[in-house]
Amino acid sequence: MKVMEEIKETQIQNVGKYVNEIFEVVKERNPNEPEFQQAVKEVLDSLVPVLVKNPTYMKQAVLERLVEPERLITFRVPWVDDSGNVKVNRGFRVQFNSAIGPYKGGLRFHPSVNASIVKFLGFEQIFKNALTGQPIGAGKGGSDFDPKGKSDLEIMRFCQSFMTELAKHIGPDIDVPAGDIGVGAREIGYMFGQYKKLRGAYEAGVLTGKGIGYGGSLGRKEATGYGVVYFVEEMLKEKGLSFNESTVVISGSGNVSIYAIEKAMQLGAKVVACSDSSGYIYDPNGINLETVKRLKEVENKRIYEYVKEHPEASFQVGYSGIWTIPCDIALPCATQNELDKESAEHLVSNGVKAVGEGANMPSTQEAIDMFMEHHVLFAPAKAANAGGVAVSALEMAQNSARIAWTQEEVDGKLQEIMNTIYRESMKASEKYNVPGNLVVGANIVGFIKVADAMLSQGVI
Ligand code: NDP
Ligand code: 2IT
Fold it and tell me: What is the pLDDT of residues 57-81, one digit of tens each?
């Protein structure tokens, strides 16, 4: 028995060494890309138990292939502002992995976008998309264009120029972009119009997140936020807890946040705070979602405007202070690394019971370690926010079949997908001896689906 254990221990050490060597190469090949390195490190570390059980993945160099994108496209995006000045931005599309379907993933327009950001997002998309059970590979893209303060016509001209180049690389069976930070239904509409004009065909399935009147799916707008809450509710249920009568803090006030707030409220929670990049609002009576929706979805205003209409609420500058507010459930839904160790310490000392990641990689590794150490229920982004891309895949299915499902049908499928992701990730965590660790569980489930498809397709 003792001998067996020693052999096992040696195997784990050897695989650990192998994984570290891969990570060293990733660092060397991708210098100055801290977000990409962070995302790769988390996944590599969590896969050690699978590699020990199935060495074929190592022999066939599956990890070495997974960490290298199939293709990274960068391009010039020239456009003309309202004063007639010529502006130039940089466009990106990373086509990371096509083992289980056409590349699929959002476009982000934000000044912070660079190769590291699109590669971390594209890499995470591999595992997330596989987790949905839908036939979608992984991609991501965007631009360092800043939509803040731009007129509607400037946004349109930018989107048209961006698509003029991107159109050469996408298609309903090739690569299907969607929204992300700074890209919503308006931008998707302008890009779809330009793609259609260039392609000379009505290929509805080339983009998802379209308007309902021209091929969009009911329920896509709500899918990511609702999905996060469905996933976290499942996780809470296992411990006899629920959103009902819980106090909840949700960062951001964009697409994901707004619909996470809506579903949490529908389940009986009191959501007391949300934010944008300027700061956060705290409303002890529970925030008024109609006001937030109007300010953000219609008027494009800053979140501090909320307190003008709701004097009982307060506004604080700086977005990370939101995590000092006592709550039972915290849902970071803004951006990467918005929740660091110090924020996690505040949440833990205020007795947080569950954290669900609506944004991509919102918690730093130190913050995740802190939650694990204190047995806080933790729903990782790749699993918890997969509802958005899952319903994007349902939009593609409807486009191919030329049919439209009802909101109820789409929402029913979304709930089923989120429950399945939860159950499969939980089961994997148990099978690989880290019961309840959904970070490891989700990474393993996603990895096995993609890795097995890659093995079946030869050295690709
Ligand atoms: P939106 O552009 O609709 O909203 C983003 C929100 O986050 C805004 O409130 C924004 O504030 C805030 N934010 C963005 N960047 C920063 C920053 N650097 N610092 C502080 N706050 C910031 O985007 P989404 O809601 O679509 O996306 C939010 C997160 O969810 C992202 O991580 C995205 O990748 C992820 N996600 C999105 C999905 C989707 O379907 N849309 C699916 C899965 C994940 P401000 O307006 O001031 O910039
Ligand atoms: O991060 C994500 O999963 C998204 N931004 C959604 C991608 C999609 O294709 O719907």
Answer: 999 999 999 999 999 999 999 999 9
3-state secondary structure of 209: coil
Query: Which atom of ligand 2 is the closest one to the Cα of 392?
Result: 10
Lowest mean pLDDT, pick from 9-13, 226-230, 290-294? 9-13
Would strands 247-250 and 270-276 be described as parallel, antiparallel, or unpaired?
parallel
- Residue 257: what residue type? S
Dist. CA 62–CA 71, nearest whole Å: 17
Backbone angles phi, psi at 89, to 5 degrees: -115, 170
Residue 456 CB neighbours (<10 A):
9
Element (H, E) at 273: strand 270-276
228 and 347 assigned to the same domain: yes
Residue closest via CA to ligand 2's atom 3 equals 389
Full domain range(s) for residue 347: 221-384
The vertex-355 CA angle with 350 and 360, nearest 5°, equals 135
Q: Is the pLDDT of residue 1 over 70?
A: no
Q: Is residue 271 part of a domain?
A: yes
Q: Which residues pair with 75 in a beta bridge?
A: 91
Q: For Cα atoms 324, 329, 333, give the angle at the middle one, nearest 5 degrees.
A: 80
Residues 81 and 180 in one domain: yes
What is the rounded distance in angstroms from the CA atom of residue 428 to the CA atom of residue 439?
10
**What pTM was estimated for this model as a whole?**
0.98
Return the closest-CA partner of residue 448 out of 39, 23, 46: 46
Alpha-carbon Rg for the chain, nearest whole angstrom, is 22
- For 254, residues 6+ apart whose C-beta sits below 8 A from its C-beta are 181, 276, 296, 333, 334
- Ligand 2 binding pocket includes 180 (Cβ within 6 Å): yes
Task: Look at residues 177, 203, 229 and tell me which one is the last residue of a structural domain.
Answer: 203
Average pLDDT taken over every residue of the chain: 97
Q: How far apart (Å, rounded) are the C-alpha atoms in residues 242 and 238? A: 9
d(CA 147, CA 211): 20
Look at residue 269 in the predicted model and tell me its pLDDT: 98
Cα 250 to middle of ligand 2, angstroms? 19
Angle between helices 407-431 and 115-131 (to 10 degrees): 90
Q: Which of ligand 1's atoms lies nearest the C-alpha of 257?
A: 25
Query: Is 17 exposed, middle or buried, given 0-12, 13-18 or 19+ CB atoms closer than 10 A?
Result: exposed
Same domain, 186 and 286: no
Q: What is the residue-wise DSSP string for 207-243? A: SSS--GGGTPPTTHHHHHHHHHHHHHHHHHHTTT--S
Count up the domains in the chain and report the number. Answer: 3
Å from CA of 83 to ligand 2 middle: 34
